[in-house]
Amino acid sequence: MPGRVKLCLALLTVLLLFSKASEVAAQSYPTRPIRLVVPFGAGGPGDIYARLIAHHLSDAVKQPVVVEPRPGAGAVIGSEAVAKSAPDGYTLLLVSNAHTSNETLVPNKSFNLMRDFVAIAGINYADVVMVVHPSLPATNLQEFVGVAKALPGEINYASSGPGTVYHMAGELLKTITDIDIVHVPHKASGDMRNNLVGGHVQMMFDAISTVTPLLQAGQARAIGTTGSRRTSALPDVPTLAESGAPGYETSIWFGLMGPAGMQQEIVERLNTEMRRVLNHPEVKSAWEKQGVTLMDPSQTEFEKFLRQDIEKWADVVKRTGFKLN
């Protein structure tokens, strides 16, 4: 009996020491640079938002936050790298709609979003806009649908990869308007924009913040935005729902996650600092001008949002019957 008591006391001592060491480590975090992996191409909204966040988060935590682009496979490549990294708070992941739709579209990937990652904070969301090449004889959604039905399977629409919001926005449009248009995936959003401007594809969905220069230069024509109401960023452009696609609504959103197993104290520290970043006047001003809305940064609310979005896109995939080749 005394031997068992000594063993229990020794184990309790070890657990207390481990708990104390973990608490101290969390309090001193971070002590070296943090990597923010962005699984999307350069020049897109994810890349732009990540760099603004990294700048202010670096100031907040007193350590460099380094943006690391890892695009490819509809955000899967960069996400896999983070899932395999140490859960120490020094490797973080920018997530978006691509991650929630990929839970259904890419069931055989090496990670599961809600199992292999931990939610840290929601960041923002914004409407996207449907645009066409100026050569296409359509100035509104009804005219576009008319052209698409007259030429089934001949109109191509670009995306930055399977499962991305730009892809799924097109699939949702196909379902609601009953048109046959062809998805042409690209490795990054910059590639899809280049191909639209070059006339190699006729249509795409894109973030308003990144496509506005093309609209202003006459290199693309706006057909409709994807929110439930018109956006202040493009007030003269109608929503798709009011233009002949009843019930159409989607947005592009971003959030922050880390590998599963991170200490809750570190998650809470990052959540606290992200709240400060999102409320920084420079960040709020920049996003308000672009029609971007801040998400509720609460860890609990973001986790709830992720689960609901996974269900939403699972339903869209089921209704469209879309499958990756």
Question: Explain this structure to me?
Answer:
The protein is α/β, with parallel strands linked by helices and 325 residues long. It folds into two domains: 32-125 and 252-320, D-Maltodextrin-Binding Protein, domain 2 (3-Layer(aba) Sandwich), CATH 3.40.190; 128-243, 3-Layer(aba) Sandwich (D-Maltodextrin-Binding Protein, domain 2). The protein is built from twelve helices and eleven strands. Helix 2 (45-61) crosses helix 10 (264-278), helix 4 packs across helix 12 and helix 7 (165-177) crosses helix 12 (299-320). It starts with a helix and ends in a 5-residue tail after the last helix. The model is unreliable at 18-23 (pLDDT under 50).
Mean pLDDT: 90
Q: How far is it from the N-terminal to the C-terminal residue, by CA?
A: 64 Å
Largest sheet: 6 strands, mixed
Based on the structure given, which CATH architecture of the largest domain is correct?
Answer: 3-Layer(aba) Sandwich
Low-confidence stretches: 18-23
CATH domain fold name of the largest domain: D-Maltodextrin-Binding Protein, domain 2
The main sheet orders its strands as 2-1-3-10-4-11
Total strands: the figure is: 11
The proportion of residues forming helix, as a percent range, comes to 40-55%
Alpha plus pi helix count: 12
Structural class: alpha/beta
- Count of separate structural domains: 2
Radius of gyration based on Cα positions: 22 Å
CATH homologous group name of the largest domain: Bordetella uptake gene, domain 1
